[in-house]
Write the structure tokens for this entry.
Amino acid sequence: MAKNTAVFRAASIALTLLVAVVGCDSRSETTGGTGSTPTSGPSAEGGGSGSGKKITVGFAQVGAESAWRTANSKSIQDEAAKRGITLKFSDARQKQEEQIKAVRSFIAQKVDVIVLAPVVTTGFEPVLKEAKAAGIPVILSDRRAAVSDESLYQTFIGSDFIEEGRRAGEWLAKKTNGKAVIAELQGTPGSDPAIERKKGFQEVLDKNAGMKIVMSQTGDFTRAKGKEVMEAFLKSPDGAKINALYAHNDDMALGAIQAIEEAGKKPGTDIIVVSIDGVHDAFQAMVDGKLNCTVECNPLIGPQIFDAVEKVVKGETLPKRTKVEEGVFDQSQAAAELPNRKY
């Protein structure tokens, strides 16, 4: 009898322990355990959302066609790393189909936010609708996309390209006393900066009858193409008449400067050169007397982009347009400003 009682007590103790273990496991699985060390969120993995979940961002970049673009990508990558945000980066190599493919991949991966720098203005509305249907907010960076419904994106963070073109034109008008025979190197056809930088520049020409564009062609925002097109300009019947060059970005201007020198002319003297971006090499060219003016287009917008990302994740409403502060620099300022150039 004593033996049976001992066995019964042992079985009861074992059963009690089993229930306790099961109960503990069940509570841990459903609540995560109160007072436990967090395994995600800003205190453990960063991300800054305060939601207990690390932020993942998909970024569809245009490419690496210029020094400006390289600096822009680095600013975004560095800022993501600084904030502990997971960044899925895609280089579209200036191909719209690659960007659309990247955005669809980000949607499939269920990222928290998509950042898109559209290679051209049109053609993105269908994929933006897909992102909206999936509940993934989109931020436009550097370039805008033409859409019929502004709810397809949260905000556009970038420069005022029309104002940049206007500033370039105003500087050239002052430099030449409103008399210039101009060759123009346009950016990628259909892209937001190419369209708007031309528009702003033309506004100034419309007010100055003595300024005229006699040749205009795309250099696709690249140094090599800028050189190639300028060579063709200088060999054309109107080539000898050109006394000014307007390039939609510095890289094309720097390529054109090579072509001007190889043609036996002095860039900056025989042909006044004004361009847009404000990259380090453009300031060096001004110091060397080969480029006369660059209108700044600041690529270091990583902090602004991720400020917006964190606000969107928190459910905050953003303005549809966020501008970037920029200036105009000519040869007289180049030497002093050159050491400050970070791109």
